[in-house]
Amino acid sequence: MNFQRGRSREEPEINLIPMIDVLLVILIFMMVTTTYAQLSGLQINLPQATGETTSTKETRQINVSVDATEHYALNSSPVNFTNVDRLAEDMRKVANGAKSPVIIINADAKTPHQAVINVMEAARLAGYTSITFKTTESQPR
Fold first, then answer.
1. What local confidence, expressed as pLDDT, does residue 44 receive?
2. Is the pLDDT of residue 130 over 80?
3. What is the DSSP string of 52-90?
4. Half-sphere CA count of 36, side-chain side, radius 13 A
5. What mean pLDDT do residues 111-124 have?
6. CB atoms < 10 A from the CB of 81, how many?
7. How far, in whole angstroms, is CA 127 from its chain's centroid?
8. Which of 32, 89, 108, 132 could form a disulfide with 68 if both were Cys (CB 3.0 to 4.6 A apart)?
9. For the chain, what is the largest distance between any 2 Cα atoms, rounded to a whole number of angstroms?
10. pLDDT averaged over every residue in the chain
11. What stretches of the chain adopt beta strand conformation (E)?
12. How far apart are CA 134 and CA 141, in angstroms?
C-alpha cells in the first residue's frame, strides 16, 4: 500500500567525495605510522675448516694480551698504553731486532673493539704483518 500517492520515490545515492576523503586520511595515517623492516644483518654461512698447528719456532712470537679494562701486556709484561706509537715502540723492543715476528693477540671476550684495533695498528706501524688471534675451542653443546 502506497499512502503517498503523489510523491515519487527518491533513489538513494552514495556520495563518493566523503568516502574518498576518509580513505585518503587512512592512507596518510598508514604511510606515516608504518615502519619499514630493515635488515639487521647479513646471513653469512662461514666455511668450516680443520687446521693443523704449525711450528713457529723459527720465528719470534710476541704475545699481546688485552683484558676487558683495556690493560695491555707484551709477553706477560704489563705495558702502560698511552698511544699507538708508544705501543709500536714497545713491540719493537720486545722483538729484539726480529724482522717479522708473529703478533699473537690474546684479547678477552669483553675487550672493546678499539683496543684490539690499537694492537693491530701498532703492529702495522712497527712493520709487522703477521698477526693472529688466540682463541679457545668452544665447548660442545
1. 36
2. yes
3. -----SSS-EEEEEE-TT--EEETTEEE--S-HHHHHHH
4. 4
5. 92
6. 18
7. 27
8. 108
9. 118
10. 79
11. 61-66, 72-74, 77-79, 102-107, 131-133
12. 21
Q: What is the identity of the amino acid at 5? A: R
Please, which residues have CB within 8 angstroms of residue 60's CB and are 6 or more apart in sequence? 95, 96, 98, 101, 102
Cell representation of residue 97: 731486532
Place of cell 515519487: 8
Domain boundaries, the chain: 61-133
What the block records as the C-alpha cell of 13 is 545515492
Neighbours of 128 (CB within 10 A): 22
The count of other CB atoms within 10 Å of the CB of residue 64 is 26
Q: Which three cell numbers stand for residue 56?
A: 713457529
Q: What is the pTM of this model?
A: 0.57
Residue for grid cell 580513505: 23
Q: Which set of grid coordinates corresponds to residue 93?
A: 723492543
CA distance 101 to 123: 10
For residue 22, the Cα-to-chain-centroid distance in whole angstroms is 45
pLDDT in tens, 18-51: 999 999 999 999 888 876 655 444 343 434 445 5
